[in-house]
Predict the 3D structure of the following.
Amino acid sequence: MAPTAIHKVTLEPKLTKTSKADNTNDETGQSIRLAARSGTFTNQTSGAAPTYVQANLIAIPARYASDFRLLCKRNPVPCPLLAESSDVGNWNALKSQVPGVTGEQIASNVDLRKDFPRYMVYEDGKLVKSQCLQVETEWTEDHVGFLIGCSFSFESALADAGLTPAHMAHGTNVPMYRTSLPLCPAGVFKNATYVVSMRLYRKEDVERVRDITRPYVATHGEPIDWGWDSVSRLGIEDITKPEFGDSPVLPNGSALSQMADSMAGDIVPVFWGCGVTPQEAVRQATLQGTVLGHAPGHMIVLDLRDWDIVPEGSP
Amino acid sequence: MAPTAIHKVTLEPKLTKTSKADNTNDETGQSIRLAARSGTFTNQTSGAAPTYVQANLIAIPARYASDFRLLCKRNPVPCPLLAESSDVGNWNALKSQVPGVTGEQIASNVDLRKDFPRYMVYEDGKLVKSQCLQVETEWTEDHVGFLIGCSFSFESALADAGLTPAHMAHGTNVPMYRTSLPLCPAGVFKNATYVVSMRLYRKEDVERVRDITRPYVATHGEPIDWGWDSVSRLGIEDITKPEFGDSPVLPNGSALSQMADSMAGDIVPVFWGCGVTPQEAVRQATLQGTVLGHAPGHMIVLDLRDWDIVPEGSP
């Protein structure tokens, strides 16, 4: 998958509640949604509308919905549930799963069938369509859409601290990997394993990176593992070849595969739970019927802001 | 560790809200707590006061409390947080973490220092006292006690369905094992791994066992893994030698180690998240200061009933 990002990435000033000032390109959640809906925005969304919370999609037949909610409850790190369809079949109103926030506040003026830049379609557990721009014809009255928090949400905070993820600085998609780390099963969702996103950091910065991302509990929170040993611990075969997103780049923009061995003591991979996990769980459960997901990295951008989901007083 | 249980285990009639009828031996949460407090009840608690919810203890210095809460939030299956000290240092009033239930309803007339039949004491991450009857002298004004759900809570429901766990039927403690399955880290709690409890079941009964325990989300819920392959998947070295509790017994009461190979196709191990996990997480984090836990299998029995934590309409 080639890098597709074209929008300019800027280092944002310190995160505050002064709204417009922290978003130099005037993008909002709604502006990105409307652009995706009309088919004019088709890119990955890392760095899009900074401080607006982003989310992953999984839409499944209603008979699997309660098992899926339980899967999220038992595995909140890879599957932090933000919202779901207000009713079975509904694609334009949300029911919030975030305490103290309404579905309307998460996103008003929403169309779950079109507001993601790109989609994936599964039939009976098999991928049948990839990277399509909308799923209007595939969505049925029996679908329940779920929005899962996305790690792009804490990238602004990392950038604020001078820890801009390399993929963000260079306009590529974050690398994402299948792992052998099992989810806690829930009903039909058995044998599922974590998908993780990865960002490279200097070893000495890992504790700061943990501290900064820790409060983002609704969007995967702190890393699940880090260091070169974690690659085999997670069952990742080749870190230069992610299953989703783009190949990892170093801070200077060159490919990770080009890294001199001498740097491996200094720079280490850091892994977070990833919202592609539910899509993999659905694939692994070979659900019958039509399942809709976003294309990895191509998120819906919500009206919700970072500070709506991070408790006051967090770093 | 030799079996210590002496109280009679009876198969209870179908779980209903008619209170006394379902507890033929007239034990209540409070009667067990008072007996433990006075030092007259010192046994493991599997089968004690059926339908009264049981809980694990971990009491830690206050500076680690917020990281511990986050550990529970990120790992709700092994660490389902039911309640904590109402204030730092408090051992006789609880703050509830169960929606719709007050601390007073979880347990009134409570003494976290004495109401568990047996305790463990750690200093700077090292076990210094084992199986002691109370921890009055070790508890300080700086301790925060946490109560974690216990899988004994769904054993009544299994018994109701004719699926009495063999250890319960034969009056022994449930076998518990350390595993290599990592928890999601949280602050100081890094490199921690699951502890699991195990019950043997016929392969054909596993889906029913999953269904029955699924609603008990506050007390570990459905199993995390099952089948003979799961033993190596979980990194358990010898299933006949649990690290905590008693050696596993077969339905006929003989040791698992005596099982004929011909039975292995029919009878399989089923593993649940276990509330000893937080105690192991504390040990693995080598927290500084004094940490107090219950002795595995020796739970506090609460005023809360099974139906207070299982949603209406569950199987």
